[in-house]
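Translate structure to sequence.
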């Protein structure tokens, strides 16, 4: 659901509004989980729920962000207003679920890790910085929608919940000594911080949850820890997927990459969007996405081998995580579309 939402959003940003709206018009028919969020995966042909790693709740906030983006960037007030009931239903998932320290719900977004990559042992969920960032962005987006085509009186409570999540992140996920975000906090009895660098945490920057010097400090931490091949960015510290993970697509021990921390275009884009938000030139991120493209500038898959830039064939091609983010980031660079925060 997350990847489909983002693909539809990027089609929308590129001017393919009818194609994007086909997906968004389907969304209200999607079966929800018992607690009112989206399932991770749906059958393309029937819409039935398909079992995959759950829960993943980032799609809730991203759905609202994408709808607000369409409203503010392209108008279409009546179409968005027609989705208002579903938007309110989904945003209530974030407003009604106040968890540990007022976080939004813990989950397994975005990297879908329910078990250890080496031992296969079960892992608890986390209050990931990524998901808290998408929830924060979703609340700001819904307040913007309510102010434009809904009930402006509802906006205040949405903004108040956003402030609660911001405070939860700053009080519990911010390493004040090193001036950077933790990856998350484990949702178990100990609630220990996961101190690994995770580039998905940049959602807290490009949605504006952290700003100013703190945002720049966190950006510097991520790029100092996870940069490969000049300007590419890996997912997180010692990421074993495609390398020595037992869950590699081709099976245990296949080593589809020659080293840990493959470089992913999607998180390279997350860094670029954060740099754009902070007024930093991000052309080198775009150049890198072209550098690792396949023959004829075709998109690669989820990642490139950080040793030599080779395409990891098993995940290729990827219309969202390389092609889509490249197109949207080019449009940002050329000033042809607004950023997320410009639409809040």
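Result:
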């Amino acid at each position: 659901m997350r990847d489909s939402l983002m693909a539809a959003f990027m089609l929308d940003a590129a001017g393919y509004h009818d194609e994007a709206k086909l997906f968004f018009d389907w969304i209200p028919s999607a079966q929800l989980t018992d607690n009112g969020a989206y399932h991770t995966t749906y059958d393309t042909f029937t819409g039935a729920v398909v079992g995959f790693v759950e829960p993943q709740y980032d799609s809730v906030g991203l759905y609202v962000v994408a709808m607000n983006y369409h409203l503010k960037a392209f108008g279409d007030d009546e179409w968005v207003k027609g989705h208002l009931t579903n938007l309110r239903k989904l945003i209530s998932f974030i407003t009604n679920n106040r968890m540990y320290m007022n976080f939004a719900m813990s989950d397994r977004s975005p990297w879908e890790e329910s078990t250890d990559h080496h031992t296969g042992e079960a892992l608890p969920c986390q209050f990931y910085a990524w998901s808290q960032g998408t929830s924060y962005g979703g609340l700001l987006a819904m307040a913007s929608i309510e102010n434009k085509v809904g009930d402006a009186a509802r906006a205040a409570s949405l903004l108040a919940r956003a402030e609660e999540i911001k405070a939860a992140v700053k009080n519990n996920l911010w390493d004040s000594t090193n001036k950077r975000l933790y990856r998350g906090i484990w949702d178990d009895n100990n609630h220990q911080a996961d101190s690994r660098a995770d580039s998905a945490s940049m959602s807290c920057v490009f949605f504006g949850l952290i700003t100013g010097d703190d945002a720049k400090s966190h950006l510097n931490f991520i790029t100092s820890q996870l940069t490969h091949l000049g300007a590419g960015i890996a997912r997180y510290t010692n990421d074993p997927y495609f390398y020595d993970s037992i869950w590699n697509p081709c099976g245990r021990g296949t080593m589809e990459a020659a080293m840990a921390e493959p470089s992913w275009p999607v998180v390279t884009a997350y860094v670029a969007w954060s740099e754009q938000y902070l007024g930093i030139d991000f052309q080198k991120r775009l150049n890198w996405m072209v550098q690792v493209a396949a023959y004829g500038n075709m998109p690669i898959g989820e990642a490139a081998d950080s040793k030599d830039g080779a395409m990891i064939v098993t995940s290729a091609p990827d219309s969202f995580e390389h092609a889509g983010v490249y197109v949207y980031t080019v449009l940002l660079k050329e000033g042809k579309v607004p950023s997320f925060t410009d639409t809040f």
